[in-house]
């Protein structure tokens, strides 16, 4: 009642603006969440089809052709090979078979000596894990050996001759998974990588744009939010690295994808510089927050250079996706460095000089990601930056403070 009375008397509705802002933020977050979920479905769609086809084929062959009355292990092995270790499926198949062999041997031996029961089961699992770890086996082999030992102990009393079908099914499931991946339903490796790279590059370009806008308006909160969002990039980078490994494996195993090997090599070489660009951008944004807090000068070319970096990332994503030489991304990266040189010449403080250095370093990372050798990229960066060095005692502006003695370093 007090609120309605105040509104009738012509007072400003302060709460209404805040509520509208929160509502709009929640609406935007809901749209972003739905977009992320749909993107994950598209990313996993091919893998889901491969897993379904491999499981069905493994069951059919084991049951109908090999006469296994309970073909449980074959489809499980097929799905495990496809889903548990993307990019290392051949190795995963070998690990399945080795783990099954170890589990069968340990389980049968201890059952022969001790019989079956609860404490025997616990002992079998413990021994299987300790022996595989002592032998230096991978985590996948350890888990598979323990799981197989459990099945041998629990099912052997009711199921005769379990060992050979289990062994055959593990081999069959892993082999069919490789067959589906390489021959029957091979994914387009470049499409897989493009979809995986999109979230990482979109995140990077969006936070660079936000930082440029925050510097122009000296809005510390905007830049701080960009820093926090960029820090949560581990999932995007892990997805990209896994997609690259999976695509390389597909191009190696699938004859239909052999012609993509050179392009995949280019992508694989771009993964590390993209990771470095993420890290260097984090330093850039963190120093931008300090720059605003310390009320240092922000020459107009500084946020312009950061905005050019954001556009360079978007161009790199587009040119990678369409299979073009990333010339536009390289040109925009060098333009960002040129703007950074102008900002440095106009006069910056300590944090500003670090921001300039990180613009140069991030641009160098993007050039390397585009296929330029590191030494050549550094030479291009120095040329684009220009001769902006001043003696430490010479002020940048009349009445201004001393300038840093050298241009910011590259790399």
Automatic annotation (TrEMBL):
Protein name: FUSC family protein
Signal peptide: none
Membrane topology (UniProt): Multi-pass membrane protein
Primary location: membrane
Organism from which the protein derives: Micromonospora acroterricola
Compartment(s): Membrane
Start and end residues of each stretch annotated as Disordered: 383-411
Coiled-coil region(s): 220-250
GO CC aspect terms: membrane
